[in-house]
Amino acid sequence: MCLFEMGFEEKAIKLQVKEEKACETKKICLHAFTDLTYVAPIVFLYLLKECYVHGNLKATKKFRALQQEVHQVLCNSPQPGPATFVAYCLYILPIFGSYCEGFSHLIVSAFHRFLKTAATTGDSLEAKIIAVRLFLDIVEGSIDHDERIAVKILEVFDIKLTDIEKVASQSKAKNDRRFHNVKAFLEQYIFGFIESESYMTAVNLLEHFSIRQSGESFLVKMIEKKQFRAAEQWATFMGKPMLSMLVQEYVDRNKLKNAYLIVKKNNLRQEFPDVHHKYKESALKKLAEKACWDVAEAKANGDRQLVDYLVYLAMEAGYLEKVDELCNRYSLEGFPKAQEHEAIFLQHCFLNLNELGVEDIIWVDELNGLGKATCHIEGSKVVGLDCEWKPNYVKGSKPNKVSIMQIASDKKVFILDLIKLYNDVPDVLDNCLTHILRSPRILKLGYNFHCDVKQLAQSYGDLECFKCYNMLLDIQNMFKDPRGGLSGLAEKILGAGLNKTRRNSNWEQRPLSQNQLEYAALDAAVLIQIFYRVCDHSHTADALDGHNKIEWKSYIVSHMDNPRKSRKESRLRKEPEPEVKDNEA
């Protein structure tokens, strides 16, 4: 029998799908069930399956389209009523094998949506009886449905313990003694989920049937298995004493954020007065470890206790300039004057410019300075590159423009004020950096520099200099598993790390502080010393990173966007590579 003889009108829904720049039209075959008076659930499910199988969209889009169609179907008078029709469908679905679980979720979700708009189904009592029998058959194992479907059946048909007891009593009247004690039977069923660590299902069932027998041990089990959502739902259902136990467990396990959110949501601050500050202090510490000092200060929101803690974090990190800044801003007393001790602290803990042989830091923000810097750099065989920009903490917003670019030679570090140079002499800046970045005579060292190049190109898109580069060696790529970033690599190779406390400072402020200048210079200068040390060790038995010899030349890369090069650039590319000796220092 063809579909149209059964009262089905075939239709196609066209969905426009944009894939890159092309717009492709795809179709999914659906049927408008205009009259379901004589359509059995088994026929309906078969057609639903055919629609799904022959649709050529991705599974998620097919699911949503069919969900909408089923919702409309339930409005077209399925017999003996929409609720009963859905109950029978759920009874039949297990025979559809691998399609059972997905279609069950589809039909239940469509029915749930239908119930929100329908005043009454007219068949809810009959449907509930069928749904109870279905649930009991699932519990017994005679009907194979996923545990989540069992829970959804209870919810969507609003099945209570009394409903199950009523159906069970009718079964006992027919000498069916499967359910001597319904509550005990259900508890045993739920205990099976607890044993199999399906905690969310167990909690949903316990809450649905208002069973409160499980206690603290159940809560601890869920926490130990990291089932925090289930634990929180269970504790909320059980009430304030269990919520208090949950908070204490979180505190004992140092899960301060979880504890704080429970205290805040359930108004338990009086019972746990210290959780708020402990969580805030933990959040400040994480921000300080990421050098997000401005964000940390904003999170402190002027709270004296939190600001004091932030000062101690700054002292611990060696960011003593920040200590004085916070003390002055909030009129804090009792802290030592930090600037007097900073030089000794940094010299003891971190690399400094003197150790790296840097004799001068030169700030470049005007034409003459840019020319002199370019001449010096073009006379160098190896330079270190880095750049900095002001962090943007607004989620989803674009990063700020790159503010400065550091170029280090053996003895000097030039810090280019890109913002000012771009505004004042963009053409000269473009020309100078093009000569440096594309020169085959200069080996340029970076660390994760492809990210910096990408940011530079986004910041100054109309400059050609950042679109191509030649003879770039990314130090990061020479090591299999570089941990701790550039600072960790420096500590591994040079014996001391870098002080990274200022990496997220305001790089757009002018003038930059001396500490900022030194931080920026170190990031570029250390690359040269790491490179020289790698070259020195590449011929020894104790070569770095487990290699007998690090062939650094194989890591050199070039990137030329435009295949149509000028003759001048073609001649440059034919020039010989710089002769950097492996033991040159």
Automatic annotation (TrEMBL):
Specify the superkingdom: Eukaryota
Spell out the Basic and acidic residues composition-biased ranges.
572-585
3'-5' exonuclease domain ranges (all copies): 361-539
Region (Disordered) residue ranges read 562-585
Q: Supply the SMART domains for this chain.
A: 35EXOc
What's the short name of a Pfam family annotated to this entry?
A: DNA_pol_A_exo1
Q: Name one GO biological process term.
A: nucleobase-containing compound metabolic process
Q: Give the molecular function GO annotations.
A: 3'-5' exonuclease activity; nucleic acid binding
Question: Which Gene3D superfamilies does the record cross-reference, listed alphabetically?
Answer: Ribonuclease H-like superfamily/Ribonuclease H
PANTHER family documented for this protein: 3'-5' EXONUCLEASE DOMAIN-CONTAINING PROTEIN, EXONUCLEASE MUT-7 HOMOLOG
Q: What is this protein called?
A: 3'-5' exonuclease domain-containing protein
This protein's species is: Gossypium klotzschianum
